[in-house]
Structure formats: C-alpha cells, structure tokens
Amino acid sequence: MFGIPVRGLIVIGVLVAAGLMYAVNGGKPMGSADASTECRMTVTADVLNVRYGPAETQPIVSTMQRDAVTRAERKVENGFRMLDTGRWVNEEFVAPTSDSECAPT
C-alpha cells in the first residue's frame, strides 16, 4: 500500500495511537497521577534538612529553603515524611499545598 511495507504501516499506526493517547491525557503519560491526587509539600522552616533516612541521626544529604515546593509521598515514619526522591524531611517543617492530597499512610 503506497509503497510502504505492512510492517512499516503497523509501526506508524502504533506511534500515532500512542501520540493520540498522550495528547488526550493532557501531555502526561497514561496512568500518571492527576495533579489533584499528587502530594506536594511547602517548606515552612527557614532551612530544612533533607535526610537519608527517617531520623535525626541520619546524614543530611541536602537542604531546602523556606517556601520551596516539592513532591512527596504519603508515607510518614517516625515523624518524617518521605519525599518522591526517597529522601526524608521532618514532618513538622512542611505543609501540604492547598491543591494536593497528602494524608499520611
């Protein structure tokens, strides 16, 4: 058909279908979380230590400044909230953004 091998037409069809699904989903990969169900936290301390694990004794791997916003998990352990990077911050010094859902598990 049109001088294009059948295998080529199949590949083109799959790519077009994937592109349409991506566009219909607002430019996000299919199955990605809706922004309203995403957990995002705002830093309330002047400087917040980001730690390797959920304890004050864990090494500090970085810091965050006041009003910084970061994605987080709903997991809270020992008073520390897990960030989406797998690092931890003291739950006392972060607050959920108004447009996110961060109820701890």
What does this structure look like?
The protein is of the alpha+beta class and 105 residues long. Helices cover 18% and strands 32% of the residues. It is built from one helix and seven strands; from the N terminus they run H-E-E-E-E-E-E-E. The chain has one helix at residues 6-24; strands at residues 40-43, 47-51, 60-65, 69-77, 80-83, 88-90, 94-96. It has a five-stranded antiparallel β-sheet with strand order 6-5-4-1-7, with no helix packed on it. Strand 5 (80-83) and strand 6 form a beta hairpin.
Brief summary of the model shown:
This protein is of the alpha+beta class and 105 residues long. The chain contains 1 helix and 7 strands.
